[in-house]
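User: Hey, my collaborator sent me this sequence without any context and asked if I could get a structure. I don't really work with proteins. Can you help?
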Amino acid sequence: MLSAVFAALTALFTSLLTLTGASPAVAADEECAPLALAPFGDPGGAVGQARVAPDSSVCYTVTVETPGLYLAPALDGGGNAVTRQLLAADGSEVDCYGDAYATHGMCAVSTAGTYTLKVVNTGWEEEDTSVTFVPLGSTRGCADPAGTSWEQPEVTRTTMSPVEVDCQPFEGERGDRVRLTYGSKVYGDSLAWITDATGARICEPFPDNNEDSCVLPGDGPYRVISTVSRAENGFPAEYAVKVRRLSDPKGCTTAPVHPYGPLEQEDFTTNPCFTFTAGAAGPYTVHSVSENREIGVARVYDAAGLSVCRYGADPCRIEAPGTYTAVLDGTYPFRDTRAGLVVLDRASDAGCLATGTGLHKGELSTAGQYDCLTLDAPQGARIAALAPLSSSGVDADVEVLDQDGTAQCDATELANGDCALTGTAPYRALVHTQDSGEDATGPYSIALYRTDAANDCPVLPAGSFTADGAKATLTTGDGVFSQCLSIPAGAHTDAEVFQLTATSGSVAAKATVLDSTGKKVCDRTATTNGWTLCPLTPGAAHTVLVTGRDQAATYTLTRRDVTSTASSAGCVKTAAAKVGGPSVPGTYGDAGALNCHQVTTDAATDVLHLDVRDALGTANIAVFGGDGTAECSFRNRSCAATGSTTHQVLVQTPATLKAAPEYHLDALRLATADGPAPECTEVPSVSYGYGPVTGTLDESHTAVCAVLPTAGFDRFNAEITDTTGAATTAVPALYNSAWSNGCTLSPSGAQCAAGGSSSAASPSLFVLGLPEKASYTAYSAKLACASTLCGTDKVSVTAVSPDTGGAGSQVTLTVTGTALPANATVRLTQSGKTLTATTQSVSADNRTLTATLDLTGAATGTWNVSVLTTCCAYSSGTFTVTPQPELENTAAPKATGTATTGAKVTAAPGSWSATASSLAR
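Assistant: No problem. I've predicted the 3D structure and written it out in C-alpha cell form, which is a compact way to encode the shape of the chain:
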C-alpha cells in the first residue's frame, strides 16, 4: 500500500514543485492579494483563484502564526498541478520540496511572518488556477475521530474543491498494524497518508514483503490527511477514508472451516473482514461468495497483521495452527457487496465421497461449493478426469490432491490424461467451477480413467485402409460423453494414423492417446471427421480417450499403419516413375475418407516429387516415411520426399468439401544419390531467369524438370500460360537443396524462391506439372528474375574480338564475359563519332554475345570500344578500322569450249582484290 502511495506522491509532487525560470523575488510594485489560511475540509473563501497568462504568475500574501509544515496544492482548471513558490519577506525561497518521503511536497515554514505565495503558469495557454495554503499541524476542520474496528459503517464524505485538504483523526496506539484505504467514489485522483500531530508521513515508505499496512510509531495523535484532486463527475465529489486494524482485529465476522460438499447457508455481510481458525498447518482454499453468487478473492493475515496469502492465492499455505484474518475488499474504500467467506482445508477428507473409475455424476448446489472425490488409485498410477466438451450443467474444473493436500494435477493435465499420482495416497479429486451467477450451480459429470497399463478399457483393433477394415464404434448420450480404449503393447506399429469420424449426430469429439507412462503421444482436437499421426511408443501399451458431449451421437475410431509395413494394412503399392512418366489413377468415395498409396523406390537416397490432382481441386495429400515420420504436411500442394524406400501417401478430401470421383497421383523420381534425374535439363545460367519453354503435358507425360544454377536468395515470378487459351495452367515447383518447395500460388500468379540461406550458389530443381484440375495443358513457362540478377554470376566483360576490320565491311564481334544481358550493345567511339553494333544473339550461359558491326563509311583509325548493359558501360580496349583496299581485277574471267549449237561451254569467274560486301543493281 505505502510503496504505491509513495510512487503516486512522487509523480504528483514532482510536477507540483517544478520551478519556473523566473526570478523568485516578487517585484516591488506587484500587488499580491491576501489569502487566508485554509482549514481542513471545505476551504470556503480561503482559495486563491486567478486566470494566469502564459509564462506569467499571480501572487498572494499569507500570514503564518505557527511554524510547521504546510501544504499548498495549486491546480489548473483540469486538475493538473501547476508550479507554486513560497517566498519569505526578504525574497528568499522557502523549501517546499521536502525530503524524499516524510515531508515530500510540503512547505517547511520555520518562522512566523508574512509570506508570498506565487502560482506560475509555465504553459503555452492561459489557465484558470486555484490554490490553498493549509497548516498541516492544525486540527481546525478535522472530522470527528473514527475507530479502527471493521464492523463500523463506512462514512462517505464530500470534498468541495480539488484544492481542499481533509483530515480524519482515528484511534490507535503505538505498535498497532493498520490498513489505510481511500479514494473518490467515482473515477478520480486522490492521495492520503497517515500522520501524527506534525502532518508528516509516519509510515514506512517501503514496508517489508510489500505489506499493505502500517505499524503506528510514536504516541499519536494519529490522523489521515487526504486530497481529491480530480473526480470524473467534478466537484463536489464523494470520497472515503478508512483505517482498519489488522493486528488483533475487532469487529470481524467469524467464519468456519467448511467440509467439502454443499455449503451451509451463509450470513452475507458488507463487512469485508472475517476470521477463521486453522486447526493445522497446511494448504487451504480461501475465497469469498457474494449474495449474487460471485466468487471473489481474499487476502489472509496472521494475528500480527502480516500477510500470509495475497489476493487470489490458491492454495493459501498456513504455516501454523491459529486464528487468521481474511479481508475481502481491495484498495477501493466503498463496499456495498454482501458476501461470506469460504474456507476449505485441502488436507482434510471431511465431506469426501469414495469413487472408482468410470462416470461420476454430482451437483454443485451452492455457489462456491467444492466437491471431493476420494480416488481408488495407488501411488504411481496415472489417471484422467474428463468433462464433457459442453453441457447444460456447470463448467466443472477438476484438480487432484494427495493426502496432505499437495496438488498433483490441474484440470489441463487431467483432461489430457497425463496426471501422475506421485504424492502420498489416498488421493482426492476436487470439483468446482470458476463461473458465477446462474452458472455457479448445477449438475456435472466427470469420467475417471486409469491411463497406465492397469485399465479395463476395451481394445481398439488395428485397422486397414480397405473398406472392411476393423474399427471401434462409440456412442454418446444418455449420460455418456466419453469412452476409453486400449492398445496392447505388442499390437501396434511405431506410427499409426488415428481417425475419428462422427457417423451420426454431427457432434464434435476429441481424442487423446497416451502410453503406459502417461506420456501423451498425440491428440486430435474436437472434430466430426479428423485424423492425426501418432508416434506410438515401441513395446508399450496405450490408452485412447475419446471425449464428446452428453448428446446422442455415434463415432468410429480407426487406427492404421503408416510405416513401411502399411501395405499389409491396405496401403496400395505403386512404384515411382521417372520425370515425365505417367500418373497413378485413384478412385474416391465420400469426402473425409482416407486412401493410402505406398510409393516405392530403389534407394532411400532417391528423391520423389509427389502431388495429387483432381477435377475439383479438393484432394489433399500427407506423406510419411518408412518409419512413419511425417515428410509432407497435409495440403493441396506438391512436395518432395526422401530418406526411405517406401513413402506412404494419404489422399483425402476434407469432409467439409465436395470430393471428385477420381484423382491422379504424381510420384516422380527427381534425383538419386548421383544427382538430378537425367530427364531434367541442365540450365547453364539463370542470370535473367529461365525460359520461356514450351510443350505439352498429359496423364502419360505429367511433368518436365530443369536444374537451375540459382543463388540462395533468388526469387522468380513464374509467368505460365496455356497456349491454347485454357484458363488452367501448369503448376510450378522449385525445390532447394533441402527439398523444400519454394513456389507459392496466388490468383495473380506464382512466385518461386530458391530458398537458400545466403547469396552463395544454391542450385535448385524446377518442376512443371499438370494443372490442378486438368489432365492436359499446352504450356509456355518462364521464370523471370524478380531482382536485377539471379544466380551467382555478376555482369562482366572480358574481351571483344576481333579488334580490327576494314572500312566499309561488316564485322561480326564476339563479346565474352559473364551475365551478359540480351539487350547489351557494343559501341565504338572516336572524336565525337559513334558506331553501334547490332546484337545478334547471347549464348545460353550468358557468357558470349555476338553482334554485327557495320563499318560502311567508318573513319579509319583507332576507335574506343565499350559494352553497354542495363546499368553500366564496360570499356574493352580499342578497335582499328583499316582503309578500304582499292578494288582491282586480279584475274579475268574466261570461257573454254566452242560456242556452237548443242556444244558445252564452260565459264569461270575472275577475281578481285577484295570481296564485295554487297552488290548493287
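In plain terms: The first strand starts at residue 33 and ends at 34. You can pass these C-alpha cells on to your collaborator as they are.
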